[in-house]
Design the sequence.
């Protein structure tokens, strides 16, 4: 059998390590990662190896040559243009004239490849994917197989609600040469996105083999460090090219190590290193060759490449130094610091946690560096959570952050694009908008200020003005204090897709964006009619004259500080009797509805995020019933089209829309999915509360119904909900176990796992942003719904306990 090592990746998430080093050449215990892959292939009896290269190919060729030094025969196939993971293999088709194995040069594993190859032959597979189980599968391709091992479904980089298993694609494939019939020369083809889905559609013999052993994709700085700690702990069965001179302490040759040096294992020290008296080489220190650690200096949990100098009394703790850095005396490098090749840090300087310093930079003595030096990063935390990016004003959310984020966003857009900006009324949101607009302009992006408005107005403006996207800044107040949300909208008026969020996040972390020349910066202009445009189109959709002539009496509650003039203008359009109270009044809306003998009460919450509707008796309509009510009103006002509804919504929504021109389509929970599914719908009733309330009032007025009568048109249903906290690392295991238990049941995998029974249904939904599961059940009675909920909650807890044993 032959092999292909894919070695063309740039490793952008590992920058600055990979600015002048291909990802397969990044060292693990002082040897390039790809060396371990070659040794693994050789130990499996595979010595004829193709290497696909693209980024800095001469570095790889210069180290490995023809492979003779390593006991293998290497042939290189270079891409002049990116062709995708599978397309790059197509380049080597002439060499791959027998079954072959594909493996990445930038991952570390000790899998028994012979076993996987034997499995491939036993199954007579066209393609076999080598799989493994990981605690957090979000950055990988999740793969599902049947009992025979045949692949039935896979998802590339899923959200938590799509994690139906913790079994993921390792990027190791065993393939028959006939696979090349599915590819075309010179065309981009990706294994996960193109080739494997095509095999699945053709019902080709596509199998998954779950391997035992260690596997690590060194794609992030954190994982790169952890992989080497795992090697020192002997969690992976690979050859360590050094002598174990003391338990857990590995040393290469020609090391100057005086008596008064303290070494705490596990640790690794490379050739020609000099360690001076009273220095401390702490646990999980990895030193490459020709490093000098001066007197009384200390290293701990740090990766130090070649030719570095660490001055007297300096401390390097949890950091990563590339080649030939000069660390002065008394320097403090904190957890997560990365120092690029050729950089110099002056004496007594302090570099704070998670700061990255690009190559050839100079930090002055006594400096305290809080942010990255050229091209910054927001640690390893996820930037986008839920609906956009959220943080505490003037703590997480600062003008500096807004400017950098805007530059990152601008780098993903075409030069000269126009982005709308909209905000809630709070002054801090206004300040942050100014900072964000400046960041966009500096990237050559034009900005259109849409003023103070709702997110629904902002979405509408993007569509009507044909903008390239928009950013909405929402200041929210709650019992826990204020938060600022930054929400991104694409040119269709939808929230950004996940792949676009990742592009912005990567650009922000790597600070891989350029500023425009001063003559080509984007311009800023204002558009004052976004709200008026929205109201004009709303008037075309809603019969306000019918509402005004109906005699309906409403109590309206809202806070002008959150809503600006929109609710005021909208209520004037209604033309019916209304009592307006503000949110800071002592008595709630229910009190005022009963006191004033109103037909209905409407309370718009902060920044258009929610609405409460109260009956004439002062009773609030529960959330699930309100959702059904919105769908009912939409369907009964002679509208037609497809309406996206979240999979967690009560099952009766299909019933309330029956007989109308509205067809219900179940979608994921997020707003983008709802909008994408909703054809020919100008305003979505679940995402625009002003529109939804208008629909309800129009229905009451046109059909001359009391509010209680309208509610009676909704069939009875009962739901129960619970949230169960779990560690992040356990979520994939639990989803796999729940999928296994539901194998012979009727299930739906739109978002999470929805399991049907004669009693009703239950939805097991991993939270996107928190280490928790949401469990939602529906049945004909409250008791049955609670029973279903309790039963599955107990199953999940029991599964968790058994998997942890």
Sequence:
């Amino acid at each position: 059998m032959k092999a292909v090592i894919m070695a063309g990746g740039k490793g952008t998430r590992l920058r600055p390590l990979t600015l002048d080093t291909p990802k397969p050449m990044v060292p693990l215990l002082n040897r390039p990662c790809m060396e371990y892959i070659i040794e693994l292939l050789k130990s499996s009896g595979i010595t004829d190896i193709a290497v696909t290269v693209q980024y800095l190919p001469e570095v790889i060729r210069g180290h490995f040559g023809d492979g003779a030094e390593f006991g293998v025969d290497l042939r290189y196939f270079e891409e002049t243009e990116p062709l995708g993971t599978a397309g790059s293999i197509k380049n080597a088709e002439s060499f791959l004239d027998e079954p072959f194995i594909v493996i990445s040069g930038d991952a570390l594993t000790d899998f028994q490849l012979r076993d996987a190859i034997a499995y491939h032959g036993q199954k007579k597979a066209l393609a076999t994917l080598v799989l493994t189980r990981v605690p957090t599968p979000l950055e990988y391709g999740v793969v599902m197989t049947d009992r025979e091992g045949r692949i039935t479904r896979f998802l590339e980089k899923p959200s938590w609600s799509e994690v139906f298993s913790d079994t993921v694609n390792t990027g190791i494939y065993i393939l028959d040469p006939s696979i090349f019939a599915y590819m075309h020369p010179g065309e981009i083809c990706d294994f996960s996105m193109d080739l494997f889905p095509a095999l699945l559609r053709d019902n080709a013999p596509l199998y998954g083999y779950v391997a035992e052993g260690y596997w690590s994709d060194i794609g992030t700085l954190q994982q790169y460090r952890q992989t080497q700690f795992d090697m020192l702990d002997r969690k992976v069965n690979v050859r360590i090219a050094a002598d174990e001179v003391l338990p857990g302490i590995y040393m290469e040759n020609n090391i100057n190590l005086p008596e008064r040096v303290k070494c705490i294992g596990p640790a690794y020290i490379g050739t020609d290193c000099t360690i001076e008296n009273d220095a401390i080489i702490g646990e999980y220190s990895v030193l490459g060759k020709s490093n000098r650690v001066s007197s009384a200096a200390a290293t701990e949990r740090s990766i130090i490449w070649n030719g570095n100098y660490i001055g007297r009394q300096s401390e390097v703790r949890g950091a990563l130094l590339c080649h030939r850095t000069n660390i002065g005396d008394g320097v403090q490098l904190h957890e997560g610091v990365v120092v690029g090749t050729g950089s110099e840090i002056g004496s007594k300087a302090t570099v704070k946690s998670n700061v990255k310093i690009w190559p050839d930079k100079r930090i002055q003595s006594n400096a305290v560096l809080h942010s990255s030096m050229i091209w910054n990063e927001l640690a390893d935390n996820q930037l986008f959570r839920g609906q956009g990016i959220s943080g505490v004003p003037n703590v997480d959310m600062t003008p500096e952050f807004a400017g950098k984020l805007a530059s990152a966003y601008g780098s993903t857009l075409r030069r000269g694009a126009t982005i709308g900006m909209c905000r809630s009324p709070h002054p801090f949101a206004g300040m942050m908008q100014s900072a964000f607009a400046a960041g966009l302009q500096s990237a050559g992006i034009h900005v259109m200020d849409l003023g103070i408005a709702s997110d629904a107005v902002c979405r509408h403006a993007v569509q009507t003005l044909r903008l390239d996207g928009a950013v909405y800044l929402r200041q929210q107040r709650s019992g826990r204090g204020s938060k600022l949300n930054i929400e991104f909208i694409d040119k269709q008026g939808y929230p950004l897709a996940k792949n676009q969020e990742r592009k912005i996040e990567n650009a922000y972390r790597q600070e891989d964006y350029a500023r425009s020349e001063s003559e080509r910066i984007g311009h800023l202009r204002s558009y004052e009619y976004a709200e008026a445009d929205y109201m004009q189109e709303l008037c075309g959709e809603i019969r306000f004259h019918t509402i005004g002539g109906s005699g309906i009496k409403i109590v309206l509650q809202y806070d002008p500080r959150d809503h600006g003039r929109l609710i005021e203008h909208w209520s004037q359009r209604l033309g019916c009797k209304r009592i307006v109270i503000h949110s800071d009044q002592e008595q709630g809306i229910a009190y005022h509805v009963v006191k004033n003998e109103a037909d209905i009460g409407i309370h718009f919450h902060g920044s258009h995020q929610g609405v409460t509707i109260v009956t004439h008796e002062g009773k609030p309509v529960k959330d699930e019933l309100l959702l059904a009510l919105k769908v009912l009103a939409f369907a009964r006002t002679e509208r037609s089209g497809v309406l996206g509804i979240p999979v967690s919504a009560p099952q009766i929504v299909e019933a309330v829309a029956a007989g109308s021109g509205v067809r219900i389509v179940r979608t994921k929970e997020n707003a983008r999915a709802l909008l994408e599914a909703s054809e020919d719908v100008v305003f979505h009733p679940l995402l625009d509360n002003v529109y939804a309330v208008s629909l309800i009032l129009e229905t009451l007025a046109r059909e001359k119904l009391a509010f209680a009568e309208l509610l009676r048109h909704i069939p009875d249903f009962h739901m129960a909900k619970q949230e169960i906290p779990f560690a992040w690392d356990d979520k994939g295991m639990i989803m796999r176990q729940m999928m296994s238990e539901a194998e012979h049941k009727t299930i739906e995998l739109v978002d999470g796992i929805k399991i049907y029974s004669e009693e009703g249904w239950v939805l097991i939904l991993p939270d996107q942003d928190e280490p928790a599961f949401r469990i939602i059940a529906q049945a004909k009675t409250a008791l049955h719904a609670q029973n279903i909920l309790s039963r599955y909650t107990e199953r999940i807890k029991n599964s968790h306990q058994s998997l942890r044993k």
